[in-house]
Amino acid sequence: MSDVVQTLPEILFVDDELTAIKYFQRAVESLAGVITATSVAEAKTLLDAHADSLLVIVSDQRMPGAYGNELLEYAKQAYPAKVRILTTAYSELSDTIQAVNQGQIHRYLQKPWDIATLRMELKQALSLARLQRDHDLLRREKLQVQQKQLIANRIVDLYVTLQGLAATTPGAMLEWLLSLTQQVGVQPLAPSWHAQNYTDWLAQEAARSGHFVQQISAELQALQQKNLPTTPVELQQALAAFFPNHFEVTDNHIKIRTPAALVVFFTQTTDIAPTLEEARWVAALVYLSRLGLDCQLSAQPSGYSWSITTAAAPWPAERLAIWLEQFI
């Protein structure tokens, strides 16, 4: 018994006329795997389900319920790398011109088809789509590597910032933040890999980082002007009160309600600026560090808890390299 090789669909053809579907399949099935739909709604479902393999979308214009250019506009927004072709009769040419002007399609094929022309157009469309797919894959992989490097740079930048603000235990505070990041499993947001080049990304990140440091410094000055308690337990409760959405104060410990929100600035994309509250939180850690205090993270059945202790042994410098390896 021989194994049947399943060919992944690379072409989606949409037409409400079954005769046209059969004609199209016979003409191009030797070029690539084909799936078909008889309506825009069905086509959207198939497109979403087979997005990983589909390369080319060919749609008739006039169909009940919705027109083909609506499907191709959807494909343009959701899957911009896929080649979009509109097929239409001469009497519907005005719709085709509008779709071309709006950038919804790459090509149009006039009905009735010439078999040789149809096959040639599909061959070219498949070649173009494969080139685009390979190019986008390489660019995505490159930006994913660059994103990891970006997170590593943020870790180093924060360590330098903690030191620059005269934190006594900068490494210990960084350790606490990175431990929380690792334990709650905060994942980097997907970069806008098809809309931004690396140099623009770096410039945006530099502006983001500089603004964050300014925010932290300003919030630290504001904390220093407050009459805060000096004992660890009372100071911890006072600081937690500044973040009512993130901490819940109990008799025995302070529960972290939203742990990911305390470290999300590490992994956000460059176009998302850290909030004032995030800067205030880092400033609070610097404030504690200046007093020679440290933070401890404890896993509880109901989540994570935060406590303040006297700083222990100095933080080994090699710990920074160890953490960087884990994040890149």
What's the topology here?
Layout lengths: L8 E6 L3 H11 L4 E5 L2 H10 L6 E5 L7 H11 L4 E7 L3 H9 L5 E5 L3 H50 L5 H15 L13 H27 L7 H10 L5 E3 L4 E3 L19 H15 L2 E8 L2 E8 L7 H10 L1
Parallel strand pairs: 1-2, 1-3, 3-4, 4-5
Antiparallel strand pairs: 6-7, 7-9, 8-9
Neighbour order of strands in the largest sheet: 2-1-3-4-5
Beta-strand percent range? 15-25%
- Mean pLDDT across every amino acid position: 85
Q: Percent range for helical residues?
A: 40-55%
- Provide a count of the helices: 10
Order of helices and strands: EHEHEHEHEHHHHEEHEEH
- The N- and C-terminal alpha carbons lie at a distance of 47 Å
| Overall number of structural domains | 2
Question: What is the makeup of the main sheet?
Answer: 5 strands, parallel
What gyration radius follows from the Cα positions, in whole Å? 28 Å
Give me the secondary-structure category. Answer: alpha/beta
Report low-confidence residues grouped into runs of 5 or more: 1-5
Shape: elongated
* Number of E strands: 9
